[in-house]
Amino acid sequence: MLSRTADCLYWMARYTERAENTARMLDVNHQTSLLPQPKEFLEQSWKKLLTISKLEDAFLSKYDVVNRENVLDFMIYETGNPSSIVSCLYAARENARVIRGKITSEVWETQNTTWLELQRILEARHQADPSRLLEWVKHRCHLFRGVLYGTMLKNEAFYFINVGTLLERADNTGRILETKYEDQDALKVLKSKKGLDGGTGGEFFDFYHWAALLRSVSAFEIYRQIYSDQVTPKQVAQLLIFNKQMPRSLVCCVNELIPLISEVKNQQSREIERLLGKLKANLDYSDIDEVFEQGLEKFIEVFLERINHIADEFSNAYLIPLATN
């Protein structure tokens, strides 16, 4: 397969996954922001969305105030933001257009229809309900994945698409975990100032903080099925890092990547297999108590460095050199 073709397949999948992840995080934050809460909590919740995507500086260069309206506008519509939903869906559609011969007509039509329908939505953006729009984005991304699995041959094209999806997913889950746990200290300070560091008020904000984290990776109901009790930081981390049955957990993403790399192996892929094997061993032989002793922030930081290094090695081995995506 040509590097250009592999590059388009890979980035079509990454951008689609990124659009879905962004829509999910924005929807959860939007719904949570409608609850009665102090202004400081509200501002903090919108700031951390920018932190997860490393977009604080880009946002502040365009907007003066961090609030719901500005963050939604920046993360949904802003074409100058490469991680906005509009930018991601456009990039996914353009990559799909380039390699139409390698994907089924159903996959192409799904991507193309998503983009055409989005144009109609953009015409009425000022009247659009954010929740309905974000739900629509999630639905279209789910539809893409369903059509992909239902119509594509399980060949090299399919494998490159899935590698892109899993690398993007692992990075997203890691970033959310890192940012939410970093926010713990800030939330404690805010609760103390508001006199909510104990009692039902503090428990209320703790619950919605961790519930929002779980919902942002579609894991709240899964958490309830497994633990059936109070939402606690350690159990949330246990689920999102080590649960092999949780589709968006770190270990699940790594485990699914390994056989995919084997399917597309070439003379340059040995290093990728080695790096993935070491990362899998690290996850398999760690436990949540060890992670918290080490420091969750440090553990996630190292994981993100390693998974992004693997993504760089994959690009060097298979894709267009120095591709700017």
Question: Overview of this structure, please?
Answer:
By secondary structure, this protein is mainly α. About 75% of the residues lie in helices and about 0% in strands. Helix 8 (about 155-195) runs antiparallel to helix 11 (about 235-240). The longest helix has about 40 residues, at about 155-195. The two termini are about 20 Å apart. The mean pLDDT is about 85.
Which terms would index this structure?
325 residues, globular, 15 helices, mainly alpha
Query: Biggest sheet, open or closed, and with what strands and sense?
Result: none
Tell me the number of helical segments per DSSP (H or I, 4 or more residues long): 15
- Overall pLDDT level: 87
Helix content: over 70%
The unreliable regions are: none
Structural class: mainly alpha
Distance between the termini: 20 Å
How many beta-strand segments? 0
> How large, in whole angstroms, is the Cα Rg?
20 Å
| Beta-strand residue percentage | under 5%
SSE run = HHHHHHHHHHHHHHH
Strand and helix layout:
Elements: H1 3-33, H2 39-52, H3 56-60, H4 68-76, H5 85-98, H6 105-123, H7 130-151, H8 156-193, H9 199-215, H10 220-227, H11 233-242, H12 250-263, H13 270-284, H14 288-294, H15 296-318
Concise overview:
This protein is mainly α.
